Each structure stands twice: as structure tokens, then as C-alpha cells.
Amino acid sequence: MLLLLLILIPIIAGILSFTVKGPGARTVALGGALASLAVAVPATLNSGAGPLSYDQAWIPMLGTRFSLYGDGMSTMLCLLVSIVFSVVLIVNNNKSLDRPNAFYGFIMLSQAGLMGVFLAYDALLFYFFWELALIPVYFLCSYWGGEKRITATFKFFVYTFVGSLMMLAGLIYLSMQTAGVNSYAWPDIVRAGASLSPDKQQWVFWLMFIAFAIKMPIFPFHTWQPDAYEQSPTPVTIILSALMVKMGLYAVLRWLLPVVPAGVDYWSHFVVILSVIGIVYASCLAIVQTDMKRLVAYSSIAHMGLMSAVAFSHSVIGTHGIMLQMFNHGITITGMWLIIGMVEQRWGTRNMTKLGGMATVAPRMAIAFVIISLASVALPLTNGFVGEFMMFAGLFGSADNGMMLMVIAGLGVILGAVYTLNMIQNTAYGEAAEGIKVADLSLNEYVGIAVIVGIILILGVYPKPLLDLTASVAGAIAK
Amino acid sequence: MSNYIYLIPMFPLIGFLINGIFWKSMPKSLGGIIGSAAVLASFVVALMVFFEVRTPEFHDKTVVLFDFISSGKLLVPFAFRVDALSALFLLIITGIGFLIHVYSTSYMHDDAGSVKYFSYLNLFVFFMLLLVLGANYLIMFIGWEGVGLCSYLLIGFWFKNRSYTDAGKKAFIMNRIGDLGFLVGMLLIFINFGTLSYTEFFGQLQPGHATLSPNTYNWIAICLFIGATGKSAQIPLYTWLPDAMAGPTPVSALIHAATMVTAGIYMIARSYALYDLAPLALQIVAVIGLATALFAATIAIKQYDIKKVLAYSTVSQLGFMFLALGTGSYTTAVFHVMTHAFFKALLFLGSGSVIHAMGGEQDIRKMGGLGKKMRVTQYTFLIGCLAISGIPGLSGFFSKDEILAHAFAKNPMFYAFGILAAMMTAFYMFRLYFLTFTGSFRGTEEQAHHLHESPAAMTLPLVVLAILSIVGGYVGLPEVMSEHNAIAEYLSPAVVNFGDFKLAGGTEWMLMGVSVVVSVIMIVVAWSVNKKPSFVANTGLAKVLENKWYVDELYDAVIVKPLRAVSEFADRIIERMGIDGVVNGVGKTVRWGGDRIRLLQTGQVGFYIFVMVVGMIALFSLSVFLVR
What does the buried/exposed string (b/e) look like for A10-20 if buried means 16 or more CB atoms within 10 Å of the residue's CB? Predict the structure, then answer.
């Protein structure tokens, strides 16, 4: 029942938001987000003891059921979703927003979709939520986005829609292979996939992999991302980068690795190499960006590259590290975008060559920005470190050339320090421009940022709760 | 007391939190008092631990605080190791740390950010204590990167100046390069031995258990050493340290001379059981150390910035310590860490006193004759110079002499180059001394008027450190003078030297004599060259030395610029024209086709799918209520 609530609350909040006139829409959305957080916490705690589930007839003629499943990984991601939405809605208080009811309505529908993706235990339902999460984002980006929003949205749409269709084809094909009547239930899909010949598994692998690779994104399927991040309004950028990229990774872990094991075995080394190249490639690109959003976009591609490399490395420790990192990357990058959003709002630009002096004029913001940046470069005792260490350990021990792969991936750590410190230097340090007057964090911004920084430090020192929550899932996936 | 070992890092952490949280409202002097008191409290506990460790009943112990990582085979507790090695480092860090905090209360008093400064300094002490207290490599790594962070923050403390923040960034990035080596070494240990804990790892290295091929040990040892070259500023990763002098001078004394930069020596001494099995790695350590000792000393000869001379001197002295490690005399390296911490902290704080008096001036060409106005600074600085030059009776003599004697036993060539570096040390230190404190003043009228001895909060630490620089060496008397080398015996359960260093008594006296004679000669030479200084533009080799062998320029041309060029290429050509070109081509085709069939008009696509999704929701609701 908790699982159903996780999806229903944002849907209801979303529909309500549409109907509210004026600024009340944000309140409704925030209420919905906080309510889902209040449900996500007990759901996560309960799933520690054993997976939760919910099952309900849906569309019998298609053989699909409304069935949800919440193990440690799923509930952890739902918790992440509700934390991120709550923080975003606390911080985002744009009074001059055009049509706020639609804006917040779409935001909440997207949250419902995300929850559904992480909980669905039925392939068709999974696909349905996948689209439900994405479609509001098209609207949000194309209506409330930046100057080049139409081009960026179109590119994003083409990319993801192509992927979605391929995934749908793959899932339908798998369901046709299930024994007896068509079924989309996860266990049936897994059995059907495993029973396929290795050749056919490879075909299915590519159908599904492309969809997930675009979403994560894995090099070279990534070019929609910097544009989409750059053009979206900050809350949408956060939804995209903190949460939607996790859809791709989650889908790999739940709907690809166990489903077509032979296909994965055949192609995994290729994917690992592609991902490792992507780490270095995206890090290099991040170095030469001058727009803060594009810089963080590329850094995110690099971080996701490490996660995808490890996902295909069949390592228990590495997969366990991914679990940790999925959560922590979401938290850290949310903080990063929030700060960038504030910078843009106050200074009127994201161009780092024109910024500087934040530490003088807005010291609290600068301190938070530095802490978040340090988490992003995985400094020990911030939340980024343990997961990254475990992933490196996983990659290192995964193959004969594991050491080489790890060292190349490790270059990302050095390059990450280069571009992240450049960003701090160009924005936080230096002299503030003549006559510039900016406010430091307002109360609601302070609360949101404090939550992010608090999680960064607590999980950095004591990651055990998340590790315990996801240990058995990681073991089952990487076995 | 050792059961309460967590108190030692806890005090500075609390100090950091108090000053860090209330930095805006905290009165400046209170910030300094809190910061200093926190480190003093740690020092008191560290003293108690030290005396407990010295008792015969004491057994090395591991104190577990909580589970840090537990994932399958990877079990890493957040645990501290109490033994002779960590207890000694605790004393050095908190003892010298306290003196430098006290000094800072005066030195930083007029700075607007002084509370923030003390919070960073406390945070540094916290991480440094974690580094030496950790019971496994991961905790050491936490401290390792943590001190790097504080170093970065403190180098760029005056963050409005771009060249200072550049220096901080350079330090962080170069350390990260080394850290990747550390990380790989750590993973190699984990993959091969299934543990990161010192006791479990070293247990598997005991004779009879060490069954892996020597290559494995060499690789691990080399990777860890790469980490050490970053943190301890050795070739090729040393160039950040001289730039790090951008930070406040007490920071240079504490972080970039006495403590943090010796982390690499601590790491190797801690892992001595591994290095015993890795002869190739030891050889590399010795050669790199010796090369760095020589190379940095040549640069120091031609520097004009008082702190830069001391910075290169630090790099050079760290090289000596690695030479000691590379010859297997780990305890000697630790001994030199200790004496160097005394006299180098003294020299840096002395230079801070000078800079303070000169109103921020650091160029020794504009100094001279300062001794007349600041006697305490002059005499304590002189003691520091005598100690580092290896004049008998002072601490540096004993530790440096031990290094050279052991180098001779290993390989006379090591000794010969070591003596050469020691000669240059005596020369550049006394060049610095004579140019700064003797002769006539070469600065401006205003500066001459301003010259004054520093207040007691600054001179008192100088005096204490000067005393330590004199007496600190008597814990490690050479064999010919005493049968007991106190420090080696003290360290012996935790760190044991590799091999035997029996030298004939006569040989040892002779080696000692040679190094003393050359040092004295070089001091005289330094005096005669610099008694009436004239500064002309350098040419030839001198110019190359003044420009630090152009290594920064070399790195810039070979690494920095190509990296940027490659990245620009990737951005402009591969990303925008290559991948995006293809994607946009596909996109345009789709749009063109869409326009034809009048369905795919931008914006409407989403709408149709949205209708579809709403339909699916309706279908679901129906099924919930009707189907059952």
C-alpha cells in the first residue's frame, strides 16, 4: 500500500496543482512532495526487512498487471526522488513564473512517473511510467526553458523517443516469449529472456540498451544532455540530471542485466570500454566549458560513465557502490544545480568568465557551493567518496585489464578536480564585480541547501544505512 | 588513555566546528583562543598516550569506532592504531601545531578572516591526526585527502588574489595525481590480500607467508610511493610546494614544512614490512629522494624570496628523508622528520616574523641588517640555520648524519651526492641568513622606520622551537657515541629498519668529520660572498636556477597546453560537428518528414502522447474500480 501511495500522492498533487490559480500551485506541489517523502521514509525502512509489493489487475487483455515491487534499491531511489522534489520545491519560489499551475502540475506528474519507474514490476507498466516521467519534461522544457528551448527539447525528444520505442519493441518481444499466456511480469520476463538463444539475446540487448544508454547517458549517446540541461529551467534540470539519468541506470540493473544475461555477457566488455572512454572524454569537455550548466552537465556524464562501466563489470562490491552512488550523485548534483540557479538569478549570467567574488558578497552560498563541489570530486568524508571507492574496487577486480580500466577511469578523478576547482575559482573566489549587490541565501534557500549539505556530510561519514539497505540487491544483480 | 584516543582528533574537530559555524559573529581573539586550546587539549592527551606507549606493559592496539564500509569482502572499520609510530607523530603534530596556533593568534590578528583561518587550521590538524591514527589505508587516505583540502583552502586563503588561488588549485591537482597512485596501490592491496588493515596486511607479509611474486610487492610499493611524491613534494610532483608559499606564513610552517608534507614519509615508514619485500621500489625511493634533494637545493641557491628559499629547502630535506627510507633506514627518516619539524617550523616562523616586520616584503634583496632590530628572531633563526646545516651539537646534525652514514653503508655514491646536497644546504641557508640579518638595510625608508621585534606570542614559539632544534637530536645518538639510539629503540616494535648498518667506528667518525668540515666551509663561503652583496641580473646557469630550471614552463608546454588543446578539439570537432552533426541530421530528417505528414509539429507531439498517457491512467482507474 505504501508503494501505491508513493505514486498516487504526486499524481493527485499534480492534478490538484493544475486546478489551482496563482501561487497556491507551488504550495500544493510542495505539500505533495513532502507527503510522498513522509511515505518514502517508512517504505525505505520497511524494505530493509524485505521487499514490499503491491499487485492489482490492470489491463487483462494485454496480459499486464499493475504490480509494484519495492526492494532496497527501489525504495532508496523513491526516497531520493521525494527528497529531491521536496528540496527543489522548497528552494524554487519564482514569483514571476508564467502559468504556475501548469508548471507545478507537470512537475508533480513527472514525480509520479519517476516513482512508478523505480517501483514497476511489470514491463508494460514500467514502460508506461517511463513515458509518464518524460512527457511532462518535454512540456516543462519547451514552455519554460531558455532561448534555444525548442531546439533542445526537440533533440531531447528525438533521442529519448527513439530509445523508448526500441525498448517497447524489446519488451513486447520478450513478453511474447513468456510461457503460456502473454505476461509482462518481471519474473516471467526474466525467464523468457534467459530462455532465448544467445543470438536473440544480443538483439534484445541492443534494443533495450540503446534506450537506457541514451537516458544515462553513455558516450556517444549523450549530446542531448548538455543542451537539455542548459535550456531547461533549474527545477527541470534537476529532475533530469539527479533523477532521470538514474532511470537509465536503474533500468540496466533491473531490466537488462538479469533479463538477457547471455547478451550482456557478450557485449559487456564493449560497454565498459565505451563508458571508460566517455569518462575521460566528458571530463575533457568539461574543462573547456565556460557555461556553468554545461560544465556540470559534462561532469555528470563523466560520473555516470563510471557508474555504467561498473554496472557492466559483474562485481558485487562495484554494484553495491553504484547503489550508494546513485543516491549520492542525485543529492550532490541537486545542490550543484540549485546553487547555479541562484547564481544565474542573482548575477544574470552563468558565464564563468563574468562571475567571481561570491565568497565576498554571499559567503554562505559560497561555503555551500564549495562543500557540494568537494562532494562532487568525491573527497573523503563527503558522500561521494565511499561509493566511488567501491566502484573503483569493482572495476579493478572485474577483468584481466581491470587495473588499466581503473587507472583510465581514475583520470576522471584528476580531471574532475581540474574543472571543479576552476569553477570554484571563477565564481566563488576573486573580486566581486564593482557595485554588484546580491543577497546571500534566503530562508527557503538556506533550508533546502542545508538539507543537501547535511546529507552530504552524514552519508560521507556514515554510509552504513544505505549500504545495509542495498547489500542484498547488489549481491543478487552482480551474482 | 589510549582507549580514549578518539579525543585527540575530536578536540580540533570541535574547534573547527565552533569557529566554522560562528565565524561571522566570533570575536577574533576568541577564535584564536578556541583554536589554540583545541590543539593544546589534543597535545595533552597525546603526551599521556605517548607515556603509556613507552611503558613495557603496553601492547600496540587498534581502537574501533564504527563500521565505515561493509560490503562483501570489503570490511573497513573506522579504527585508530595506537603504537610507537603514531604516538610520536601525534606529539609532533599537536606540539608544533599548538606553537603555530599561538604564533598565529598574533600573526593573523589584523586579518578580517582570522576566525575562518583558525577553523581551517583546526580542520587541518584534525585530518592530519586521522592520517597518522588510521588503522587501515582507507582512513589514512581520508586524512591524506583531507589535509590536501585544508592545504588548498589555506594556500588560497586570501582568495581575492587570483595567483594565490591558482597556487591552491595547483597544489590540489598535483596531489590528486599522486592520490591516484595511492588509490591504485590500495586497490592492489585489497585485491591481493583481501584487506586494507595494517595488521592483517602486514601479517600476510611475515616471512613464510609472503608467497606472491616480488613484482606484486614492487607494484604496490611503487604505487603508494607515487602518492607520496605528490604529498611530500618529490620529483616529478614537487612544483606545487614552492607555489604553496602563497598562504599565510604560519601555514607554510605547519602544513608545508613540519607536518603535512611528511605524510609520505609516514606512509612508507608505516608500510615498512611491504618495502622490505620490494627491493626495486626501495631503490626507486632512494634515487628519487636523492635526486630531489640535489635538484631542489640547486634552485634554493638562487631564490630571492625568503619563503621560496625555505620552500625549496623543505623539498630538498624531504628528499633526504626519502633517501633514508630508500636505504631501508626507516627510523632514521622518522628521526629526521622530527628534527626537521623543529628547525623548519622555526625557520618559517622566523621568516614570518621578518615579513611581519618588513610590512609584507619577502624579497631578501630589500632586507639586510635586520638583526639589529630583531635580536630574538635573528638568534633563533641562526639556530635554525645551524641545525639544518648539520653543525655538531644541534638536532639536524644527528639526523642528517645518520641518513648519510646509512646511505654510505648502502652505496657510497648515495653518500657522495648526499654530501653535495648538504653542502648546498649550508650555503643557501647562510646566504639567506647573512642577506637578511647582517650587513646594512636595503629596503625603503618607511620600512626601516617600521622595523621592530615581533610580539611575545610570536617570539615565544620561536624560542621554544629553537630549544627543540638544539636538544631534539639527542634522542638519536650515532653508534660511535652511544650504544643506544633512543628513537630507533622506541620505534622498534612499530617500525624496524631493513638490513644491518654496521660501520666501523673509524669510518663513521670520518664520515661525520667530512660532512661537518664541508658545511663549515660552505658557511664561510656564504659569508664571504654575501657580506657585501650586489645584485645584478643573473645570466647563464644562475638564470636557469633562478627560474627553477624552467620546470613549470616545461609542464605547461607538455601537459597543460596539450590537454587544453585536445579538449578544445573534442569540444569543437568531435562533439559539435561529429556526434551532434549526425544527431541533428537525423533530427532534421525526422522534422522534415513530420512536416510532410502534418503530425509531428513541434510541441504537439508531446500533446498527443500526453493524451495517450491520460488515456492509460483512465484505463487503469477503470480497471481498479470495475474489473476486480
Answer: bbbbbbbbbeb
Strands (E), B85-184: none
Query: If you measure CA to CA, which chain A residue comes closest to B562?
Result: A284
Return the amino acid letter for B608. Y
What pLDDT sits at residue B628?
40
Query: Backbone phi, then psi, for A15, in 5-degree steps?
Result: -65, -40
3-state helix, strand, coil in chain B (%, to 5): 75, 5, 20
Q: Which long-range contacts (CB under 8 A, 24 or more apart) does A189-192 make?
A: A189/A123, A189/A255, A189/A259, A190/A258, A190/A259
Whether B104 contacts B118, CB under 8 Å? yes
Give the Å distances, CA to CA, from B91 to B125, B341, B342, B448.
Answer: 12, 11, 12, 39
pLDDT at A75 over 80: yes
CA–CA–CA angle B211, B214, B215 (5° rounding)? 125
Question: Tens digits of per-residue pLDDT, B200-253?
Answer: 999 888 877 767 888 889 999 999 999 999 999 999 999 999 999 998 999 999
Q: Find residues 544-603 of chain B whose CB sits inside 8 Å of chain A.
A: 563-564, 566-568, 570-571, 574-575, 579-580, 583-584, 586-587, 590-591, 602-603
* A270 CB-contact burial (10 Å; exposed 0-12 / middle 13-18 / buried 19+): exposed
CB atoms within 10 A of CB A278: 26
Kindly list the distances between the CA atom of residue B100 and the CA atoms of B127, B306, B345, in Å, as whole numbers in the listed order: 17, 19, 8
Residues 138-167 in B contacting A (C-alpha not used; CB under 8 Å): 138, 141-142, 145-146, 149, 152, 156, 159-160, 162, 165-166
pTM, two decimal places: 0.93
Taking residue B47's Cβ as centre, other Cβ atoms within 10 Å add up to 16
Contacts of B160 in chain A (CB under 8 A): 357, 360, 429-431
Residue boundaries of the structural domains of chain A: 1-259, 268-479
Cross-chain Cβ contact B71/A407 below 8 Å: no
Query: Residue B408 is placed in which grid cell?
Result: 654510505
Q: Domain locations in chain B? A: 278-546, 557-595, 598-628
Residues in chain A: 479
Residue A454, chain B, CB below 8 Å: the answer is: no
**Cβ atoms A135, A106 nearer than 8 A:** no
Task: Determine the Cα angle at A255 with ends A251 and A261, to 5°.
Answer: 125
> CA B99, CA B456: separation in Å to the nearest integer?
12
CA–CA distance, B627 with A59 (Å, rounded to integer): 9
Task: Test A135 with B606 for CB contact under 8 angstroms.
Answer: yes
Q: What is the ipTM of this complex?
A: 0.93
The helix (H) or strand (E) run that includes residue B482 is none
Give pLDDT, residue B426: 94
Rounded distance between C-alpha atoms, residue B509 and residue B590, angstroms: 88
